[in-house]
Amino acid sequence: MAVLSKPIIEPKSELSLIPVIDISDPESKYAIVKACEDFGFFKVINHGVSTELVSVLEHETVEFFSLPKSEKTQLAGYPFGYGSRKIGRNGDVGWVEYLLMNANLDSGSAPLFPDLSKNPATFRDVLEEYIASVRKMTCHVLEMITDGLGIKHTNTLSKLVSDQNTDSILRLNHYPPCPLIKKKNNGGKNVIGFGEHTDPQIISVLRSNNTCGLQINLADGSWISVPPDHSSFFFNVGDSLQVMTNGRFKSVRHRVLANCKKSRVSMIYFAGPSLTQRIAPLTCLMDKEDEMLYEEFTWSEYRSSAYNSRLSDNRLQQFERK
Ligand code: GA4
Description:
Keywords: Iron, Metal-binding, Oxidoreductase. Helix 1 links the parallel strand 2 and strand 3. An eight-stranded mixed β-sheet has the order 2-3-11-8-13-6-5-4. It is 24% helix and 25% strand. The chain contains seven helices and 15 strands.
């Protein structure tokens, strides 16, 4: 199986390294900007998303993944639908099963909800409510970012993702406990749950249960484990936001390692713009002497090129200006 990686090198796990942002405090805007520059990653507290809503969605997600495999595979599809082990269509694999859907549930994802889940109506309702609530929080964070960057129009970024018809995605992941890790002949290797990659969209918002596994890559190339926190959200900068800030913000490389004992469940909202949106460095952020580091592209162009790549590829390279 191609999911074994290099021997374990214990990554640093310094909780204090990961910026924690209280988004109920407007002054946090500068701390968010710094986090996006230094790490492309931060944890958000006092977010206003209902704890009850989050736990109902987690419950429904666990119920869904506990269905017999034969039922789940009836939802297999591309790009949206149920998947197991295979990630994308270019040969990537991981110790994971997932359900991917368009965040606009009225679009192509609707057939995803036949009478399969135990409570189809509840599952759909809770997904809709969760997506609306996380989208609202995301827009708030993007407005704090534009404000922190000193951009006059605070909706410059949030308007790209605020509409429910933008190309945003919700991903539910289940990383089952991995028996391979315990086996002596595994040679003490990590098992990759989800291989290292950056997210193509503008910004991604992750929430998980309390099982560890997520790691982020720092500027010096080292990996740190992100201590799980089921009551917070983790934000990461996507490739499109790196381009719009002309490289000032970093699209963070991240991965998930499988766990030998506990299941990890996560839900990630990928905030993407509409297909026709042009992605280019924002001129309001550039000084006269600054050079644009990237060629302009539309989200539709970038999305197709991303979906033809392997997970660990540097997808922005081909758009860098020579
Ligand atoms: C990474 C971010 C999101 O999970 C995702 C992934 C997508 C997929 O799972 O189909 C991709 C990956 C992600 C980028 C490169 C391509 C496409 C798997 C893959 C190998 C849903 C997305 O938008 O891009």
